[in-house]
Amino acid sequence: MSSDSPGFELPLRLLMGFRAIIDELHAELARQGHPDLRPMHGFVMQAVGQSGTTAVELGRTLGVSKQAAGKTIETLERLGYVERSVDPYDTRRKIVRLTPRGIDSLIRSARIFDDIRNRWAARLGKDRLRAMESDLRQVTPPDFFRLDIPGWFGTL
Amino acid sequence: MSSDSPGFELPLRLLMGFRAIIDELHAELARQGHPDLRPMHGFVMQAVGQSGTTAVELGRTLGVSKQAAGKTIETLERLGYVERSVDPYDTRRKIVRLTPRGIDSLIRSARIFDDIRNRWAARLGKDRLRAMESDLRQVTPPDFFRLDIPGWFGTL
DNA sequence: TAAGATGGACAATCAAGTTGTCTATATAGT
DNA sequence: ACTATATAGACAACTTGATTGTCCATCTTA
What we know:
The structure is a homodimer.
Chain A: H1 9-31, H2 39-48, H3 55-62, H4 66-78, E1 82-86, E2 94-98, H5 100-124, H6 126-139, H7 149-154
Antiparallel strand pairs in A: 1-2
Helix pairs in contact in A: 1-5, 3-4, 5-6
The structure holds a DNA duplex.
């Protein structure tokens, strides 16, 4: 079948799709009062979660060194999205928690992601979009929380 | 419709799909004698093209500064994938061209991309894969050569 | 022919990773 | 209980790949 597109188009389209969504998300987040958030920050705050975490733990979750995780935490702390406090049960640990501003950004992100997905569904049809998601699930690992995104992008 | 996946899954799946292909490509390229190529290098060499280019031109194509483009060229030159020569018609310009090794890596990449695509087609069905590509084309810009990948990833 | 634009080199800076070292604190083994 | 080991976090130096700014040589144009 010669009408197939060349193999290199598929990864580029996947990347462009990812990028289109992320760019739109952050344009909208900026409009909604979060102009300083970088795409990475969303991943990091998701990894921090409602229950909090530590630099070492965060580094393991994200697949980067504890020092790198610490630096990202510092940035997010400076921007007001997380805060640190000493763990009373283990005074070595400093627990990182989302601030109300951090939680707000996650809530807004979730809503914006859903809006974008609805727009894709309107464009492609609900069934086609669901088929795409289902097919992507088949060719990618099942869990999407161990992505080690930062480390991977660093060496791109 | 409550069976829809949350909106944030789609971009992650797109990214994981991209990453799965690129990881596989470079694992195979390493096996075939190109262990030092980074994912970025493929984009850059595609942008260099058969007819050659210059640092300034390459920077414009990739959406980065001419200095950044120059550094990447240096790296690829050191690895033996491109070579530079002075333009006899304009002695300011240095023309960057692919070496035979550079061309070899592009040929192998194209073959590997096709192999990976065939494996996806076997897994998902040819029609489903074509539907995915077609749908992605609908929600992404038509031209995939002005991606400014390096600049974009840098600020991720 | 003088003025301006362009290509490339060099330097300093930045951001986000890395490894290595150090201190303080917890935990486990004898 | 004491000692040895492991862990959390801070600090420093380095790497990579981007940035901006400056500079010189060369080409183009008025």
